[in-house]
Amino acid sequence: MTNLSMFSLEGKTALVTGANTGLGQGICVAYAQAGANVIGVARRSCQETADKIAVFGGKFKEIIADLSDTSVIPHIVEEAEKAYGRVDILVNNAGIIKRCDAADVTEADWDAVININEKMVFFLCQTFAKKWLADNKGGKIINIASMLSYQGGIRVPAYTSSKSAILGLTRELANEWAAHNINVNAIAPGYMETNNTQNLRSDEHRSEEILSRIPAGRWGTPEDIAGAAIFLASDAASYVHGFTLAVDGGWLAR
After folding, report:
1. Average confidence score pLDDT of the chain
2. Helical packing angle, 157-177 and 120-135, nearest 10°
């Protein structure tokens, strides 16, 4: 008989970036429901997330930080440890997208996307892994990839580059850290109802095009990510390393 307690996050502390809205908010709520102390990092207020968690008496701490600059990492670590002590789970969810024809992309826009979606992800992983390597108690890292980790997309060259890098980085870090009881995995969400897809969903033609290719016949929601996020953060995934799990309504199967 399966022991369902292996999916519990009771007594664990999870830090989730991009926690004020969308998938990050959904993951925060799911983790709190699974028993974790949750720390949400975002550049804007996470009050809506805090309110959703307060409804069922979950534990949530907000840290305001601009994730475009790695100099904020020591502040994030200090505030997180002050709130709940050791961080056990890191979810690198924060990301931005800038839509533009490849011929017109500026260096400033390229750097803005890569800094948040790729550079910050690596250095947050490194920071927490160093702590876990030092105390030898292990930890869980979950990076948020994308359908564009597998496909090229159009008008999003920096985003596609960054999300392809996340798939590769997840594998590389797993190769180095799996033997130290540090699980590094990723989730590749399909087309979700989030801020990043607002423009696509508002474009009747593009939205219809996308929906026609999703076997499930609908856009995904933040709640659709919850099960995968809990699984990869839990003891149930203790032997899962370096894998990117698609939660896409069947998009990649098409």
Report:
1. 96
2. 10
* Under 8 Å between Cβ of 159 and 147: no
Q: What is the DSSP string of 50-78?
A: HHHHHTTT-EEEEEE--TTSGGGHHHHHH
Fold for the domain defined by 4-247: Rossmann fold (3.40.50)
Catalytic residue ranges: 159
As a whole-number percent, the residues of the chain with pLDDT over 90 amount to 93
Residues with Cβ within 8 Å of 165's Cβ and at least 6 positions away in sequence, in order, are 117, 118
If you average pLDDT over residues 167-172, what whole number do you get? 98
The answer on pLDDT for 4 being more than 90 is: no
Low-confidence winner among 54-68, 99-113, 161-175, 192-206 (lowest mean pLDDT): 192-206
**Cα dist from 20 to 111, 117, 205, whole Å:** 23, 16, 29
Alpha helical stretches, state H, the chain:
22-33, 47-54, 73-84, 107-114, 120-135, 157-177, 198-202, 204-213, 222-233
- Cβ-contact 129, 139 below 8 angstroms: yes
Would the pTM of this model clear 0.85, i.e. be above it? yes
